Fold this sequence. Notes:
Radius of gyration: 22 Å
Number of helices: 3
Structural class: mainly beta
Strand content: over 45%
Low-confidence stretches: none
Number of strands: 19
Oligomer: single chain
Mean pLDDT: 91
Amino acid sequence: MKNFFALIFTLIVVSNITSFAQPDYDFEGYFQNLPVVQFIPSELSNLYGVSKTLELNLARVRLKPVIYLWENGRLNIAAESDILLYKNLTGFFNLTDEKTNRQIVKLKWQSKGKNYSFLNFIDRFYFRQGFDWGNITIGRQRISWGTGRIWNPTDLFNPINPTTFYKIEKDGADAISTKITLGNFTDLNFVFNPQTDFSQSNYGFRFRTNIFEYDFSIMGGRFDGRNVLGGDFAGNLYEAGIRGEGIYYKPGQNNEKGFLKFILGIDYQFTSKFYALAEYHYNGEGKLKKTDYELQRLMKGEILNLSKSYLAVSAMYNATPLLNLTFTNINNLVDGSSLFGFRGDYSLSENSYLDFGAQYFLGEKFSEYWYYPSSLYLLFEYYF
């Protein structure tokens, strides 16, 4: 199984070499530099054995070549090199060479020193062939399901924790994906995500259509050894946008209980410069008591939240043609902890940006957002 994708791509490249002398290609990418100062609660700094103030710098270079092999056939690659400089680290901001639970081939290479971590990895590596009826994609790819802006319960492949300010792309999943176009705004997507133990492979479908100017979808499959069923919708209610998505995990083995996850959201463009949204998230997998929180699963990225009920509110203001300001508040409605975020995005030129921001976490001891370090950061971005 580990050699499956390597074999597929070898066949593709060999076929291309024998069929075409000079395939066409595109090349783009970006560079980012992110200096960060983090502030650790006293109890956590003692627990981790780190100072209360951490100074970090993350530099990233991401290269994204696209090779057009033949008619409607292309190879997409995204390779990245990261270097993180630091004095101390916590588990909430770190570079790791571990593959995710949606990847079967390890394409990461890391070296570490006392005050640095250097990571090279391939985040996208897939072949896509288009047909009159749709397309087939094979390899490490991004699969985006759901309609939520803050949380995506139906995204079982590449979810991102909404507290993460230093990550843009979702992790790639090693998969075979087939999309069948059935009409305008209507398609059927099948995805197979193999695992090292083939019997534990993940697979699912998503049917999407549009009815009365509303986008609807239903999805289902088997993921992490459990059968799931869900769906999403998005549309307009008068002048406001509304959306929702949800998924039900059926009871599993080892007395695992079934549970439901869903979001409901609304957004509105008040003026040409002011936009706001609100989103509620119910996490049936979460816990009601702080003593039951599964912190280790959160640190490993297996779950995104610890508790059951959340409310997020975000507002964006276009201060000038070159400067956007965003304010975000996420509240754990069970334990009372919360995140307050601010970000400014300033356009330096057509392809360079300077962003600045802060995250402040508030909560009682051992509440969910008490564990997170508050942060101040700058972000320089250059796209080529």
